[in-house]
Amino acid sequence: MLASLASIASLMLSTLLMMAGFGLMNFLLPIRAIDEGWATFTISIIATAYTFGFTLSCIVTPIFVRRVGHVRVFTALLTLLTVSVLLCSLVVDWRAWMLFRGLAGFAIAGAYLLIESWLNERVNNENRGALFSVYMITALSGSIGGQYLVPLGDPSSTELFIVCALLFCLALFPTALSTAQSPAPIAEAKFDLKRLLKRSPVAFFGSLLSGALSGTWGSLGGVYSQNVGMTTAQGATLLAAFLAGGAIAQMPLGRLSDFIDRRLVMIGSGIFGLTACSAMLIFGGSPVALYIAGFFVGTVLYPVYALNVAHANDMAEPDEYVKISSAIMILYGLGTVTGPLMGGTLMEYFGPNGLIWFLAAAFALYAGYAGYRMTRRPSSEGPSEKTDFQSKPLPMQGPDSSGGVGDRLS
């Protein structure tokens, strides 16, 4: 195990530094946007440009990797990420920020893909769980640490933007100077939406909803924290509570779904998420209550993506896994693009709680549709043997994205 950890040490150091910059950037920019007086809907449009760039990169980046290799593309993407955050500090205009955030989304998605592809070649059945756990902890720690840098500076000045750019630049060194062998080129993504819909309608619909859930909170959670009167330190803690809940609950929830009908777990997750969102609405005046309720929302907001993948794989033939998982990724991406627009619109009309109402409605739809599908396809009609649940954090949101995109495209 020590040898396995040593083989990914430089990769994990790059991940830690990159995710620290990512956490800082994703909390800093919404706060700066609020300071500039931009409307919530305007901020949601900027977030949509980011998720569009992220989704596009998942398709385009493998082409570049096949031409020039992992290390060169990783260097180019982190350079692009650095340029994007510096441009945000130089040109403070929401129309320009749409372009800059689109570039950032493209760059960070490609970086995730490369890191995960690299990691997948370093793992085997014996050490897969341990090494991906190290990856998740590293990414989560970096993101949370980056968020807590925001209270130490002034979002209205350029210092925090420069710190963010420095972190991205430093993330280049460990992998650029590593003597470890680069992984094999990434294969082109192939997806089949019709086959996914036929095999698992609940995963098809659930993928859109899981993208809307995580994409909306990931894009507008910082805006919510500021609009309800939290300090930047309290806002960072709220975002960290969501992430921690998702990281802790994913495997227990997934293992439970290995022993019972996964759709029952989907129903339970939707109801639990709806209840936790209701608690945020009721007890929203207390920061501590929001931390606790947010933690419980996170326990189901992030893991539902992996439940969709597991259920679709249950219904698929082994040679369909890659196409179906890639189709789920595309649908998830569509959800992340449209979710912030709808959530931002609700926040514009109903205030910050409009975001929580949106999350609650999405959870209710997730549970309701899973229940409907149970009436259409009884559990006795499912596979005689399930696939084993695997931890698959989100491909569209960085802080807990381990084994996501790269696992399906490599």
From TrEMBL:
Q: Which residues form the Major facilitator superfamily (MFS) profile domain?
A: 199-410
Q: Which residues cross the membrane?
A: 7-29, 41-64, 71-92, 98-119, 131-148, 160-180, 201-220, 232-252, 264-283, 289-309, 321-342, 354-372
Q: Where is the composition biased (Gly residues)?
A: 401-410
Which parts of the sequence are annotated with region: Disordered?
376-410
* InterPro entries in the record: MFS, MFS_dom, MFS_trans_sf, MFS_YcaD-like
What is an example of a Pfam family matching this protein?
MFS_1
- Keyword tags: Membrane, Transmembrane, Transmembrane helix
Q: Which domain of life is it from?
A: Bacteria
Its protein name is MFS transporter
